[in-house]
Structures are given as C-alpha cells and as structure tokens.
Write a structure and sequence with these properties.
alpha+beta, Cytochrome p450, five-stranded mixed sheet
Length: 391
C-alpha cells in the first residue's frame, strides 16, 4: 500500500524493487483508501505514459484516486485534460514557452545561484533546501512569469506541499488565495502587457482561438506549481547524491562537462516524481497480463521503471557514463513535462556550482536523520544540513 509516512522513503527503492519483481501490475490503495492499479515495469510504464486509453480527464473516473480538488480557475490545466483540449492548450503554450526562451534565462540562473550562495557561511552548517533548493526555482518562476510577490507565493505553496499546524494558512485558504492572485495577475497582464510569459500566453492565438481566463489561470498555476515543487525535490535529492558519492563529486569538480550527464542519472535514480499523475482507463484494457476495467485509476511507477534491470545495467549505481539513459523522470508522450528544459538548466547550474566550489562538502548529520516530505506523490527532503567547505 502507498504511504504518506515520511519514514517510507529511505526504504522506498527496496519496496519498489520487490513490487516490480513480484508482478508487473499490483492492486493497491492510496493513503486515503482509494483503490488503484500500480504498474511497475519499464516497458509497461513507458507504454502507459503514451497510451491514449489512459486518460487524465477526471470525468473518466468511476472510482478511486483522482488527486487534488482544485477551484475551476485552476482545474483546466494540462494535467487534467485529454485531446483535443489538451492538444489545443499545449499548442498555445509551446508557441511561447520555447527552448530559446529557456536558454535566455541561463544568466539569471547563474546570478540567482551566486546570490544565494553568497549568503552561505562556509564551515557552518547550512540547510541547502532553505538556502538554495527552495529559493532558486521560486526566483526563476518569478523571472519567467514576471511575478515579484515571491514571499506570498512561497507561503501558499509551502502550505500545499507540507500542510501542518505551523503553516500560516490551511490548504483551502492557500489554494483560494493563490487562485485569486493568479486570476488578478492574468487580468492585469491583459490590460498591461509586459513581455512576460503570461503576457505572451494572453496574446497567443491558434487561428482564431484564444485561451479563456480559466485556461490561462490554470496554465500559469501549472507552470508555477510544477516549476517550483518538483525542482525543489530534484535539487535536494541530486545534492544528496553528490554528498553520498565523493568519487562522483570529485569527477564533477574536475570536469564540468560531465554535469549534464550526472543530472540525467540523478533524475533516473532518485527523481522527484516516483509516480505519474493518476490516469483513468477509458475502456477495458490489459497491462502486463492484468485486466483493468474502464473507469479504474492507474498509477505508473516511474521510480520502479527507472531502476528496471531489464533496461539498466547496475540500476542502483549512479553511472554518469550510462548511454543511452532513456529515463522517464519527465514522462513520455504527449504529457512529457513542458518544464523539463528549465529544470535541467537549474539543476545543472546549481549542482555544477556546488561541485566546482565545494569538493569537500559533507552531510552535517547522519543520513538516517534526514527528514523527508510526508507524501507518496513526491520524493523530497524537507531539509538538508550540509557543511560547505571551500576548495
């Protein structure tokens, strides 16, 4: 059974390996008791990510886990839509969210990393989640979307990522205020275009078609949420891998050209999204010899697929010479992550800078004492205490 217990994560890979070895498909439950099918092997997971019979539209669900309940202004996003609506919206986004646009952000990523590390005191314990992994993607989302109220956004998103008694909002308050903020932001960009991604989305047309306000607000929410939450987790687990493997850290210190390959291996081995977003069988179908009735919820276990020995030699190892490395950390098919180029850029600059500047950095606590987010959906550290020792 899937668990929200933070103690699950240290042994998660062993558990996933056992599931994959036992059967290609398992019947299980989410922590709230919703029944789901879990697909564990690489070939089936990759095929499932591209299978149009596994839809994202929640109206196809007859029973089981459907994920977050969002206000209408945030719900019309790409993670809840199937073709043709998904095709139309994604075409609008790809007009303006281009590889060139992301590459133009490279100097800003370097600047933010430098500014954040300038506030770190060498030889003192530093929480790299608080000091780097969380503020960097938030700053980049601010740059990309033209948003300057980052403290408010961080308070809302932190509440949604890790709800609890010490947060300033309840999840309901956070999502309501965030939805209102984004609606107002879209309306302001309609009146006052400023060259930001939001303004370009407002102006984007596909023939005579323009995005509605709800579609625009939902897209901005998705870009902000996905660009923030998952990148925090990817940075945290990537830095942890660097800390746990001195030989790898030494290699990246000596050869910056190896950083991109290392990032791909970090994403494969301990990616931030162990499970795909829930999908719903739109008709009766068979996966891995198991019949799945129409309307049932399916979760594709990316973390298990990315460690499948049928695809990867020495799947436990961080092998930056691994070629090819067809990992599924960013998905596959029509729902492949739009923000993958930006995430790769942030990871490469941040982790490359740490390896170059602090080749002797070390965990400040035993690995067993690290705290993980209490979520079965995301593999992420809540803190990462590190001693940064300059070369």
């Amino acid at each position: 059974m899937l668990s929200n217990d933070s103690a699950f994560w240290p042994a998660a890979d062993t558990t996933y390996d056992q599931w994959r070895d036992q059967a290609p498909v398992h019947r299980s439950e989410t922590p709230d008791g919703s029944p789901v099918w879990i697909v564990t092997r690489y070939a089936d997971v990759r095929a499932g990510l591209a299978d149009r019979r596994l839809g994202l539209d929640k109206t196809n669900s007859r029973t089981g886990y459907t994920g977050f309940t969002l206000p209408a202004a945030l719900d019309a996003n790409l993670l809840n839509l199937d073709p043709p609506d998904h095709t139309r919206l994604r075409r609008h986004v790809t007009q303006v969210f281009t590889t060139r646009r992301i590459e133009q952000l490279r100097p800003a990523v370097h600047r933010h990393v430098e500014q954040l590390l300038a506030g770190v005191h060498p030889r003192q314990t530093t929480d790299l989640v608080t000091a780097l992994a969380a503020p960097l993607p938030l700053a980049m989302i601010g740059d990309l979307l033209g948003i300057d109220q980052l403290d408010r956004i961080r308070a809302w998103t932190d509440t949604l990522i890790a709800p609890g008694p010490h947060q300033p909002y309840t999840p309901r308050q956070a999502i309501t205020e965030l939805a209102g903020f984004l609606r107002d932001l879209v309306a302001d960009r309609r009146r006052h275009p400023d060259g930001s991604l939001i303004s370009d989305l407002v102006a984007a047309r596909d023939g005579g078609d323009q995005l509605t306000d709800d579609e625009l607000t939902s897209l901005v929410f998705l870009l902000m949420w996905a660009g923030y939450e998952t990148t925090i987790d990817a940075l945290g687990t990537g830095i942890l891998a660097l800390l746990q493997h001195p030989d790898l850290r030494s290699r990246l210190h000596e050869n910056a050209d190896d950083v991109p390959a290392a990032i791909e291996e970090f994403l494969r081995r301990t990616g931030p999204t162990p499970l795909s977003i829930r999908r719903f069988a739109t008709e009766d179908l068979t996966i891995g010899g198991t019949r799945i009735p129409a309307g049932d919820t399916v979760l594709l276990l990316i973390a298990s697929a990315n460690r499948d020995p049928a695809i990867y030699d020495r799947p436990d190892a961080y092998d930056i010479d691994r070629t090819p490395n067809p990992h599924l950390a960013f998905g596959h098919g029509i729902h492949h992550c739009l923000g993958a180029p930006l995430a790769r850029l942030e990871l490469s600059v941040a982790i490359g800078t740490l390896a170059a500047r602090y080749p002797d950095m070390a965990l400040a606590v035993p690995v067993e004492q690290l705290r993980w987010r209490p979520s079965f959906r995301a593999r992420g550290l809540t803190s990462l205490p590190v001693l940064l020792q300059p070369a």
